[in-house]
Amino acid sequence: MNPFLKNDINIFKNLSESEFIELKSVFSYRKYLKKEFIIKEDAAVENIYFISSGLVKLSYFDNDTNEFILSFAFENWWETDFSAFYNQTKAALTLQCLEDTEVYGLNFDDYFLILDKYRLSNYFLDKSIRGHIASQKRILSLLTLKPKERYEQFLQLYPSINQRIPKSVLALYLGVSRETLSRLYRKSKK
Amino acid sequence: MNPFLKNDINIFKNLSESEFIELKSVFSYRKYLKKEFIIKEDAAVENIYFISSGLVKLSYFDNDTNEFILSFAFENWWETDFSAFYNQTKAALTLQCLEDTEVYGLNFDDYFLILDKYRLSNYFLDKSIRGHIASQKRILSLLTLKPKERYEQFLQLYPSINQRIPKSVLALYLGVSRETLSRLYRKSKK
DNA sequence: ATTAGGGTGTGACCGAAATCACTTTTATTT
DNA sequence: AAATAAAAGTGATTTCGGTCACACCCTAAT
């Protein structure tokens, strides 16, 4: 198993080497290529995914035409369509790779199994609360900031992924048109 | 202790009567009047609050002038400035009563204490994930819907609190001006 | 019954961003 | 290297929602 996942979990719970080998067996490793879908709309959402390398986008399509991006996820993030996974319903969101990406999947039953067996509830609770806090920041950003300010906030918050995604994709995340973003970009440079 | 909290927790973990009496002692009950602040900007955030009755708004003020509402919270919801509580920093948000409100406060140390002592991690994990899912829905609503559609979605989602708040306050939540909301309102009636 | 204040409705005007249309630049593929 | 596709820049036009200004409630207090 990728060392990242081990290090990440160990922040909260020091498992012995043997416990870790045991735990590792419940995860399913898979590699996806750029543009491949990890979760497709209307498909069942079997897993929650730990991204060990690469970059993905979680998005929603209205009327299967216009795309909107809920979040990017990269190294050491857990991601899935939480609503669909947690309620075991069909995916309303899609999860697609912006780069070649390696993931460790954890299915519904195993998720609840390991919560108790390895006392990982507090680990996931921490992840979830931080995710919740990040979502609230995003809501405030959408409510309070103008496109230009949102763009600048994004640059500050995620300087690394800004380099890794096309501007047209970033526009889908910021909630502005491609053209408007392009014009802002010029202005904030000088 | 208010029966609501007990019923809510019991969904996840059946505590004995004596355990419950023990647990109850860590909560601090308090009653607030309409317009009172439970959390004030820049103050320390001691507690996470379980709302047992009433209605509150969680909001952000930019430059201490313009208000934006992150969420409403009412009976059976847990609410606080999570970022400030969890990181033990000063409040960036305010929590203010829209009605007379009764809360049960739980402080930082006790929170982590009872997570383990009463095995409540899974209970709070569930709450947190559902909160996270709700936040994501809100983000999508802001990204994909026009003001009129957001208003209609709100009516559908929270028909009860729509009756309990002024339209001008709802506008702060929907991210539109008071005037625009007023005009939409007329249009969607006919 | 008069006043004051919170909440709401509505017209006029303005501006930021969407949309449309097209060009230019940069990557990928063969 | 040529061809094709993807991404980005830019002008012209339109539109939705914000802002300003003021009128009209309705309830509670004097």
UniProtKB/TrEMBL annotation, chains A, B:
What protein is this chain from?
Crp/Fnr family transcriptional regulator
| InterPro entries, sorted | cNMP-bd_dom, cNMP-bd_dom_sf, RmlC-like_jellyroll
Which residue range or ranges hold the Cyclic nucleotide-binding domain?
Answer: 11-115
Q: Name one Pfam family in it.
A: cNMP_binding
Q: Which SUPFAM superfamilies match?
A: cAMP-binding domain-like
